Amino acid sequence: MGLPEIAAGVEVVDEQRDRGVATVDRTGESLVKRLAPFADELPCGPETAATLVEAYTGGESVGDAARAAGLAPTDGAKALHLFGESVSPVGPTGRAVVRDWLAGRLARTEAVDLAGVSDREFALAVYVETHDPIPGAREAVEGALAPAEDAAVDKRDALGETMSDVGDLR
């Protein structure tokens, strides 16, 4: 096969076609039903967890999404962590401090001071360090935790003036 056969059907156009964001929803069932198998491992029921995820993906902060679901902010953060979201209130150094406290190398008050967080934030960091995300739960909320097409469009509109265009490359 030569180059002419390989290139057959290829056409050159002046502008690209906007195809939008590709989305695939293979679940076929509601978020509540997808979360039901994980109910025993979550800090809340599947209905509450679904409300939390929907509020969070709608652009709410972790605390506001938790309140919308009727949860304490820490419980909402715990649930999102179990779904695989990064909600730790500390960075890499803070995580090392938490691990040192868990290993008994630091007193709690010293660890909280070194981590530079409140007692509540420290407790959440400890939870994140001691609990792995639930296997399979990330897949259950995969479509819900992906950015919505409307959010992507709103972001593009808001940042439109800062983005370059094909015409800017000339």
Largest sheet features: none
The chain-level mean pLDDT equals 82
Q: Provide the β-strand percentage band.
A: under 5%
The termini sit apart by 36 Å
Helix content: 40-55%
Shape: extended
Low-pLDDT runs: 20-27
Assembly type of the chains comes to single chain
Instruction: Please compute the radius of gyration using only Cα atoms.
Output: 22 Å
Briefly note the structural class of the backbone. Answer: mainly alpha
Give me the strand/helix succession: HHHHHHHHHHH
What's the tally of helices? Answer: 11
Tags for this model:
170 residues; mainly alpha
Topology:
Blueprint: H1 3-6, H2 31-35, H3 46-57, H4 62-68, H5 73-82, H6 92-102, H7 108-115, H8 119-130, H9 137-140, H10 142-145, H11 149-158
Helix pairs in contact: 3-4, 4-5, 5-8, 6-7, 6-8
Q: How does this structure look, described?
A:
Helix content is 51%, strand content 0%. The chain is extended and about 75 Å long. It is built from 11 helices and no strands. The protein has helices at 3-6, 31-35, 46-57, 62-68, 73-82, 92-102, 108-115, 119-130, 137-140, 142-145, 149-158. The two termini are 36 Å apart. Helix 4 crosses helix 5 and helix 6 (92-102) packs antiparallel against helix 7 (108-115). It has 170 residues and is mainly alpha-helical. It has a domain at 31-147.
Q: In a few lines, what is going on in this structure?
A:
Helices cover 51% and strands 0% of the residues. The protein is mostly helical. It has a domain at 31-147.
